């Protein structure tokens, strides 16, 4: 499984906000510090805000903040939210047309591995990603 740039940016936004809980930050702050596209970040932030992970306010005192405590935002939750195609092979999709699906064990094996993958990710929160807070802050 490969994580998309969209998911990578979602993690970066959340990490940035977790590192700056005392202030509101802007998309421009995040884009400048990471050297990434402001337009792409706007789409990411919109999804995170709609999911209730980030609060966004406009105006001179506006900006972004985490909507939940970092230890309540789970890594697996973020990936499920941002990855729209976790279906590893055709037989996972509703429009499956694979002729050997009824006798093939690949789907069962991959399903088991996907459950294990998310089982591990669901053990970790955003707080775990910023455990080296001072080292991360030096890099931004």
Describe this structure in words.
The protein has 140 residues and is mainly alpha-helical. The protein has a domain at 5-84 and 125-139: Winged helix-like DNA-binding domain superfamily/Winged helix DNA-binding domain (Arc Repressor Mutant, subunit A, Orthogonal Bundle). It contains 7 helices and 2 strands. The chain has helices spanning 5-19, 27-34, 38-50, 75-82, 106-121, 126-129, 133-139, and strands spanning 54-57, 63-66. The protein has a two-stranded antiparallel sheet with strand order 1-2. Strand 1 and strand 2 (63-66) form a beta hairpin. Helix 1 (5-19) crosses helix 3 (38-50) and helix 2 (27-34) crosses helix 3 (38-50). The longest helix has 16 residues, at 106-121. The model has no long low-confidence stretch (mean pLDDT 91).
| Strand proportion | 5-15%
Q: How large is the count of helical segments?
A: 7
Shape: elongated
Low-confidence stretches: none
The Cα radius of gyration reads 18 Å
Largest sheet: 2 strands, antiparallel
What is the CATH class of the domain at 5-84 and 125-139?
Answer: Mainly Alpha
CATH architecture label of the domain at 5-84 and 125-139: Orthogonal Bundle
Q: Which superfamily, in CATH terms, is the homologous superfamily of the domain at 5-84 and 125-139?
A: Winged helix-like DNA-binding domain superfamily/Winged helix DNA-binding domain
Query: What is the H/E order?
Result: HHHEEHHHH
Overall pLDDT metric: 91
Give the class from helix and strand content and strand pairing.
mainly alpha
Distance between the termini: 29 Å
CATH topology value of the domain at 5-84 and 125-139: Arc Repressor Mutant, subunit A
Helix content: 40-55%
Q: How many beta-strand elements?
A: 2
If strands are numbered along the chain, what order do they take across the biggest sheet? Answer: 1-2
